[in-house]
């Protein structure tokens, strides 16, 4: 690792052969002070937008060259730049706060004076703050049966926040709750797979708030209840009374096979005359249906959390579960699957009703809503689940308890995630030259869970427990409740997410300008397919979206078997081409001239981008020097760092990092029987990896746009973006007609989304828990930090955790993510995210508080991580066994149903078998598929955010032949259909999307009038090979375009659409995504449930 570079040292130069050059910019954690001064709130400057500028010349002039270039015209004909691609989307504006960068601070003793300032009056009415010290919580409830009741959430050490005085979010009015259909306490609910699904308070009505807090309390108005689905029973069995299950709760305990069901309370103890057990999250506060019994009264003086939509009731002490009857006895034949009604097995229940989610309620952590639901966060002390989610909302006290559960303890951190438009922006706090207040032992940052004592003179760190002196200029008296009197006025003391302005101590050099270098493939294949023209058009249109200001720098180069730089200096009358023919030992000519300020070179840049496709239109060079070109571009921006955006079309075949067609020797597909097939998913050699580590050292982030029609070895190429914090965009098979719009939108979102440079991230944990490993797109050079040359709002990092000591039952366990980064405006910031969760020693509490979305996202990422190093069959077995081990643990230690003919599923994880089956049938694990398709899937999963994890393997399917043209629909997106061919009719049209791609299946018997209105065709036989969605002048077409654009907005991705029909490969592709059907990739959903049940039975009896 390079040595520390002191402030003011010369920047690294581009001469790689100079042994005396200074090392790359690294950040020593022992160079930072924690001084404090005045508190100021500010916002970063808003992005200035300017419209695209036209070319200054009607005809591009000749470019003088430093060397001969075949095909370079002496007088280029006029080049007509294509207009804005169809369907261009307006992206969300950049939030007020910027993006992160750099390494974390060191161990420096505080230098501030401590104690009460001179002249400060004595604190008023001091007393110990109630509930501020963590208590070991026992179970006060009396068991209703032999099992002991679950423990409740302990009081948090966090401080309650005061009211937020602010204007109400636009369009949000008083909420109207829907009544519950079940009685008794409620628990977190498993999430739906895709779209915005409601799992919280009721839908909003429009109207402005007349006053009061920003987020209004729920009104008492009730809505008609939704009828519950019938209990899962045997197909063709005698009709039975419906169970006490609603869409928002869990089913009643189902009697063993042969026993008729009777209407009963969801609590077995209640049926015997006993009271329902207590709820970990407090009694519900939403109005109940009149037919239900009244909830227990709240604890006096406590704040009771509201009942979330979909929170299941608690059927028995230590139990919240779903029972699936008639799955066969041990050793029974598979034919027993015919007894299960496919319409009654667990499936996601989507909804579009928005909810307001408060992160803390009554000093207790509020379980997060489903990641795919539509919710608005009110930060009341804990961070928003958009920024950090834990796989379990209660932390196990011991490692043995975690191992027994079979679940994983991990965090998914997305520090720059996009907030909801109605959420208040993250506050930026400037402590001046002294910097933010920190613990002098563990270097944790000040947060709402640090407890102030001794009249405010000292504070206790919630991470390491150390008692520190409060800096004199930060002292404040405590109120009667034990909180600082200014707690609600200081964002760092009442918000779970906050940004600090970094001081000079957090910098080893001044923040560098935002640099964007574009590298374009001009080989014969790229020219002939239109990839070069599409790339140049997209770049020329996003120039106006780059950050304005004198610090924004740009550069352009092209490459085939040689590399061509361009001097864009304003002093030249026209751009000057500079050729680098040596692709084995590359260099950058006139380094200071190839990267220039955007404000000085805009005219030359636009002219150059218009001319490049014409200049190389007769190019017959088929080779690509990808590795050499990337290395040369790196040398051009090495001194400052920045973003390198590469457009690649063919397999790199010459120069540094050249590759061979490993897929060519009859290995187009990978099958599970090939023992060495997984090695094709590993990089071919270490050349590109070594280069990528160099790029990360000098803070260069690489994004690669692959526009190809053949194999390009993504497994090797993707090493560069994954190591530098970038990503790979894949367009296969590339079509200039249908993919130009997606290429433009992807590039535009890449440069305009919230992002940062030169970032360093560290996660700190409370005593007893430590970070085990980080997973994501980054470079790791130290055990505790991850280096991110670039990070943006779409990147997620998985942090696995492990115990190093026993935790106290009822105490709080805190996690704090600190991200040091530079915004696109050159401001150095620290994005701080803090999450505090209760600890528990009860296994049933772990299952009750499991977060299905986060559990499965970590499940998915670990599977993707294993695919390149293990045979596919082995990975599939491990995926199945992990699902079985979790359900076995619940069945063995928590469930009270003794019938062997029932599969018992924990309510929070009842969809885990469905998503596990979907994962096994996904692109990454199915038996067939192209190597590059599997490689891009692995690369995509590595940085995938939590809301997109489930839709990737369990897509959303919608019927679009019967869209309602009305504008007053509650939701633009129609109802989701189960992924089964039983729900697909040949008289319908269906859209299936997974967040990146969309397939539109057209049945053979569709009404020709509908086809004409939607696609301008009269028969499925007229389906075009290359498809672009058009908007015709009719209500149905407008509605379809609205639906597609809404999906694109939800996913922050420009959906790539393709038409499919039965009988050709496109139809087979569509039906391969119907994961509930039996296919060559795996069994049907019902068969998989039977398999899981029998495996559990075998393990229980052994």
TrEMBL record:
What keywords were assigned to this record? Protein transport, Transport
- Asked if the Swiss-Prot or TrEMBL record annotates the protein with the keyword Transport, the reply is yes
Q: Bias regions of kind Pro residues — which residues?
A: 75-85, 275-300
Sec23/Sec24 helical domain segment(s):
851-949
Supply one GO CC term from the record.
COPII vesicle coat
The record's section on SUPFAM superfamilies has:
beta-sandwich domain of Sec23/24, C-terminal, gelsolin-like domain of Sec23/24, Helical domain of Sec23/24, vWA-like, Zn-finger domain of Sec23/24
Q: Where is the Sec23/Sec24 beta-sandwich domain?
A: 756-840
* Record InterPro entries: ADF-H/Gelsolin-like_dom_sf, Beta-sandwich_Sec23_24, Gelsolin-like_dom, Gelsolin-like_dom_sf, Sec23/24_helical_dom, Sec23/24_helical_dom_sf, Sec23/24_trunk_dom, SEC23_SEC24_subfamily
| Positions of the Gelsolin-like domain | 973-1041
Query: Which residue ranges does the record assign to the Sec23/Sec24 trunk domain?
Result: 511-751
Write out the biased-composition intervals (Low complexity): 28-42, 64-74, 154-165, 173-185
Quote the biased-composition stretches of kind Polar residues, using this chain's numbering: 43-57
Query: Which molecular function terms from Gene Ontology are attached?
Result: SNARE binding; zinc ion binding
What GO terms describe the biological role, i.e. biological process, of this protein? COPII-coated vesicle cargo loading; intracellular protein transport
Q: According to the UniProt record, where is the region Disordered? A: 1-320
Protein transport among the record's keywords? Answer: yes
Q: Which CDD domains match?
A: Sec24-like
Q: What superkingdom does the record give? A: Eukaryota
Where is each Zinc finger Sec23/Sec24-type domain found?
A: 436-474
Tell me which family the UniProt entry assigns to this protein. Answer: Belongs to the SEC23/SEC24 family. SEC24 subfamily.
Q: Protein name, please? A: Protein transport protein Sec24-like At4g32640
Question: Which species?
Answer: Carpinus fangiana
């Amino acid at each position: 690792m390079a040595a520390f570079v002191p402030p003011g040292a010369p920047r690294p130069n581009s001469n790689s052969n100079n042994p005396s050059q200074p090392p790359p910019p690294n950040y020593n954690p022992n160079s930072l002070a924690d001084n404090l001064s005045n508190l100021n709130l500010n916002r970063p400057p808003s992005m200035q937008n300017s419209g695209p500028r036209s070319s200054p010349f009607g005809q591009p002039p000749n470019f003088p060259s430093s060397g001969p270039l075949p095909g370079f015209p002496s007088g280029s004909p006029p080049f007509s730049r294509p207009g804005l691609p169809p369907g261009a989307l307006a992206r969300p504006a950049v939030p007020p706060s910027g993006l992160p960068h750099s390494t974390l601070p060191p161990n420096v003793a505080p230098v501030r004076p401590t104690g009460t300032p001179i002249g400060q009056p004595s604190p008023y009415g001091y007393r110990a703050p109630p509930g501020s010290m963590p208590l070991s919580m026992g179970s006060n409830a009396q068991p209703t049966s032999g099992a002991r009741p679950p423990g409740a959430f302990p009081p948090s050490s966090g401080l309650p926040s005061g009211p937020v005085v602010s204007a109400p979010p636009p369009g949000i009015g008083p909420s109207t709750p829907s009544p519950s259909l079940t009685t008794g306490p409620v628990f977190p609910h498993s999430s739906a797979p895709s779209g915005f699904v409601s799992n919280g308070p009721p839908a909003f009505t429009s109207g402005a708030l007349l006053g009061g807090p920003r987020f209004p309390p729920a009104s008492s108005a009730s809505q008609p209840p939704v009828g519950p689905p019938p209990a899962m029973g045997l197909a063709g069995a005698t009709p039975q009374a419906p169970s006490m299950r609603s869409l928002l709760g869990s089913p009643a305990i189902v009697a063993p096979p042969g026993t008729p069901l009777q209407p009963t309370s969801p609590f077995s103890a209640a049926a015997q005359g006993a009271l329902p057990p207590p709820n970990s999250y407090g009694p519900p506060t939403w109005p109940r249906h009149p037919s239900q019994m009244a909830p227990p009264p709240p604890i006096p003086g406590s704040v009771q959390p509201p009942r979330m939509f979909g929170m299941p009731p608690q059927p028995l002490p230590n139990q919240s579960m779903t029972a699936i009857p008639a799955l066969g006895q041990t050793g029974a034949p598979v034919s027993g699957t015919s007894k299960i009604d496919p319409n009654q097995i667990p499936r996601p229940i989507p909804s579009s009703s928005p909810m307001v989610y408060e992160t803390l309620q009554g000093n207790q952590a509020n379980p997060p809503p489903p990641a795919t639901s539509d919710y608005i966060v009110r930060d009341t002390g804990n961070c928003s689940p958009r920024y950090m989610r834990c796989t379990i909302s209660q932390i196990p006290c011991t490692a043995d308890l975690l191992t027994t559960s079979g679940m994983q303890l991990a965090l998914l951190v997305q520090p720059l995630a996009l907030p909801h438009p109605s959420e208040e922006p993250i506050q930026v706090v400037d402590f001046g030259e002294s910097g933010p207040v920190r613990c002098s032992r563990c270097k944790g940052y000040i947060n709402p869970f640090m407890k102030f004592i001794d009249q405010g003179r000292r504070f206790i760190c919630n991470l390491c427990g150390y008692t520190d002196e409060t800096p004199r200029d930060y002292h404040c008296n405590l109120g009667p409740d034990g909180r600082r009197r200014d707690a609600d006025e200081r964002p760092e003391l009442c918000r779970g997410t906050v940004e600090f302005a970094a001081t000079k101590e957090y910098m080893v050099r001044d923040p560098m300008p935002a640099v964007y270098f574009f590298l374009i493939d001009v080989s014969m294949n790229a020219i002939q397919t239109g990839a070069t023209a599409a790339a140049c058009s997209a770049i020329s249109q996003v120039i106006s979206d780059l950050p304005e200001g004198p610090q924004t720098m740009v550069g352009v180069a092209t490459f085939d078997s040689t590399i061509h730089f361009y001097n864009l200096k304003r002093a030249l009358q026209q751009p000057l081409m500079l050729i680098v023919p040596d692709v084995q030992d590359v260099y950058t000519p006139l380094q200071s001239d190839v990267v220039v300020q955007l404000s000085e070179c805009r005219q030359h840049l636009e002219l150059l981008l218009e001319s490049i496709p014409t200049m190389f239109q007769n190019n017959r060079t088929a080779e690509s020097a990808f590795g050499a070109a990337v290395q040369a571009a790196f040398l051009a921006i090495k001194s400052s760092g920045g973003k390198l955006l590469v457009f690649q079309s063919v397999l790199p075949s010459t120069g540094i990092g050249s590759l061979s067609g490993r897929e060519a020797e009859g290995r187009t597909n990978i099958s599970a029987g090939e023992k060495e097939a997984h090695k094709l998913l590993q990089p071919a050699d270490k050349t590109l990896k070594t280069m990528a580590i160099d790029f990360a050292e000098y803070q260069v982030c690489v994004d690669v746009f692959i526009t190809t029609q053949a194999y390009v070895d993504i497994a090797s190429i993707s090493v560069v973006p994954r190591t530098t914090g970038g990503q790979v965009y894949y367009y296969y098979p590339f079509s200039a007609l249908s993919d130009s719009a997606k290429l433009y939108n992807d590039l535009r979102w890449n440069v305009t989304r919230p992002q940062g440079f030169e970032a360093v991230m560290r996660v700190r944990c409370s005593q007893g828990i430590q970070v085990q490993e980080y997973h994501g797109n980054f470079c790791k050079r130290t055990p505790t930090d991850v280096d991110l040359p670039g990070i943006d709002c779409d990147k997620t990092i998985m942090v696995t955790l492990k115990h190093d000591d026993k935790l106290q039952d009822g105490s709080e366990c805190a996690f704090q993510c600190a991200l040091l980064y530079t915004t696109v405006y050159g401001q150095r910031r620290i994005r701080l995210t803090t999450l505090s969760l209760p600890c528990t020693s009860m296994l049933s509490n772990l299952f009750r508080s499991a977060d299905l979305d986060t559990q499965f996202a970590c499940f998915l990422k670990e599977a993707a991580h294993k695919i390149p190093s293990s045979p596919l069959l082995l990975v599939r077995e491990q995926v199945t066994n992990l699902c079985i081990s979790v359900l076995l643990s619940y069945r063995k230690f928590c469930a009270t149903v003794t019938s062997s003919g029932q599969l018992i599923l924990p309510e929070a994880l009842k969809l885990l078998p469905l998503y596990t089956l979907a994962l096994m049938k996904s692109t990454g694990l199915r038996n067939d598929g192209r190597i590059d398709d599997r490689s891009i899937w692995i690369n995509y999963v590595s940085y995938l955010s939590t809301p997109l994890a489930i839709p990737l393997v369990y897509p959303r399917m919608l019927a679009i032949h019967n869209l309602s043209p009305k504008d007053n629909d509650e939701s633009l997106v129609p109802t989701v259909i189960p992924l089964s061919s039983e729900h697909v009719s040949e008289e319908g049209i269906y859209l299936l999307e997974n967040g990146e791609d969309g397939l539109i299946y057209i049945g053979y018997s569709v009404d020709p009038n509908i086809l004409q209105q939607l696609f301008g065709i009269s028969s499925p036989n007229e389906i075009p090979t290359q498809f672009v969605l058009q908007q015709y002048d009719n209500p149905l077409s407008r509605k379809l375009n609205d639906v597609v654009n809404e999906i694109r907005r939800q996913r922050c991705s420009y959906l790539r659409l393709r038409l499919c029909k039965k009988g050709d490969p496109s139809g087979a592709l569509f039906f391969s995504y119907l994961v509930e059907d039996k296919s060559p990739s795996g069994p049907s959903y019902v068969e998989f449930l039977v398999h899981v049940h029998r495996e559990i039975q075998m393990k229980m009896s052994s």
